[in-house]
Design a protein that fits this description.
The chain is built from two helices and seven strands, in the order E-E-E-E-H-H-E-E-E. It is mainly beta and 93 residues long. The protein has one domain. Strands 5-6-7 form a three-stranded antiparallel β-sheet. The protein is globular, with a radius of gyration of 15 Å. The two termini are 17 Å apart.
C-alpha cells in the first residue's frame, strides 16, 4: 500500500517537484532484517528493477536514513525518457 504523505504531495519547487510518500508492504515468512537489507542495497537496483532503473548509488547513510541517486527510464514504442533524482528514504521500525 502506497499513498501521498499529505495533501501537499507533490510540492512544487523551482525546477522540480518534491514527492513525499508513505507505504507499507507485507512479506509472508520474511525476516525484517532481510527485507531492510535488500531494500537498502542500492547498488543492486539496476539488476533487481531492470529495465526501469538504469543506475543507482548510495550517497549517504545512517541507521535510519539513506540518501541515494537513481536514474529511472521509461520506454514506450516511440519514445525513451530518463530522469535522474536524488532521493532520501527514512526507515522506522
Amino acid at each position: 500500500m502506497v499513498a501521498p504523505f499529505d495533501a501537499q504531495t507533490p510540492l512544487s519547487v523551482r525546477s522540480g517537484l518534491i514527492h513525499h510518500w508513505i507505504g507499507a508492504v507485507h512479506f509472508p515468512n520474511a525476516k525484517l532484517n532481510d527485507v531492510v537489507k535488500t531494500v537498502r542495497d542500492y547498488a543492486q537496483y539496476k539488476m533487481r528493477y531492470h529495465p526501469s532503473v538504469a543506475s543507482s548509488r548510495l550517497l549517504e547513510t545512517s541507521e535510519s536514513k539513506d540518501q541515494f541517486s537513481i536514474v529511472l527510464v521509461n520506454r514506450s514504442l516511440m519514445l525513451k525518457t530518463a530522469y535522474e533524482a536524488d532521493c532520501e528514504a527514512s526507515y522506522v521500525r
